[in-house]
Amino acid sequence: MEAGCYGRNIVSSFSEFGALVGNRHKPKDKPTDTKVALGFLAPWLIGAVCLSLVPMLYSLAISFTKYNMIKAPRFVGLMNYRHMLADPRFVSSLKVTLTYVVISVPLQLIAALALAVALDRGMRGLAFYRSAFYLPSMLGGSVAVAVLWKMVFGSGGLFNALLNLFGAHTAMSWIANPDTANWTLIALHVWQFGSPMVIFLAGLRQIPRELYEAASVDGAGTWRRFTAITLPQLSPIIFFNLVMSVINSFQTFTQAYVVSGGTGGPSDSTLFYTLYLYQQGFASLRMGYASALAWIMVLIVAVLTGINFALSRFWVHYDD
């Protein structure tokens, strides 16, 4: 009896093993998850390769050539990169851009965070205010706003009219003055605080309210709660906005082009790096030199981003 049970168990085990082996060799009816994922990613991958990777590699190749888009490129080695060291306008454009980034990015983030904290306190019509404050981020980079900004800070613009109301009579064109022209563009960049503000507001909504209640019970004031709870909890969001703002600031072009009329004046005070790159590539037809400028900018942005990531471990706090 027991022998029969053992025999049936052995036969059953062999049958199950045979079924598993047979199923292993059968083709699957459904495609694998990898194929499905690649299918969904295919449009993006094709666009990334054809519209980004290939042009970038081509740009890197012609940065070692002398190319005016009329004649065939002629290989010149590192001449374009060596020429930058003796190019005073390259140094000037780099100085103007770095000044713009160093001043405008912190001011924009401070304004965005302050407004996000104010909106987070709760008020009627929050959705309306959020949309209204986000609107400058959508319109600030347009040609129309740049033209309007040029009129506002002109000699007979709205800014001088406001100063006249307070007794500071002046007819100076803030756009045409080399000492103030870049500051008008910094003000325009700070005005576009809507995008980081919305991200800050979303981050503030994720901070547990129990932390603020416990701090209030311990006697912590408003400023103490902000520095001990809000800033540490929001540090990953601050870091994200900082990195993105730095990258976007280096790409500023439309405002400087419209305000200066494409010249970068007065006295190259608004000669942004991207504007100088445009002048060399499409105005002077020095496409090889312009490509070299573009890759130097990529290198600068990569170095600054790497520095931000290296320093982030000292002040960015994650859940772990």
UniProtKB/TrEMBL annotation:
Keyword Transmembrane helix on entry: yes
Cited InterPro entries: ABC_transporter_permease, MetI-like, MetI-like_sf
Compartmental location: Cell membrane
Bilayer-spanning residue ranges: 41-64, 98-119, 131-149, 156-176, 182-204, 292-316
Stretches assigned to the ABC transmembrane type-1 domain: 94-308
Keyword Transmembrane on entry: yes
Membrane topology listed for this record: Multi-pass membrane protein
Keywords of this entry: Cell membrane, Membrane, Transmembrane, Transmembrane helix, Transport
CC terms in the record's Gene Ontology section: plasma membrane
SUPFAM superfamilies to which the protein is assigned, alphabetical: MetI-like
Domain of life: Bacteria
Family to which the UniProt record says this protein belongs: Belongs to the binding-protein-dependent transport system permease family.
Name of this chain's protein: ABC transporter, permease protein, probably Saturated and unsaturated oligogalacturonide transporter
Originating species: Bifidobacterium scardovii
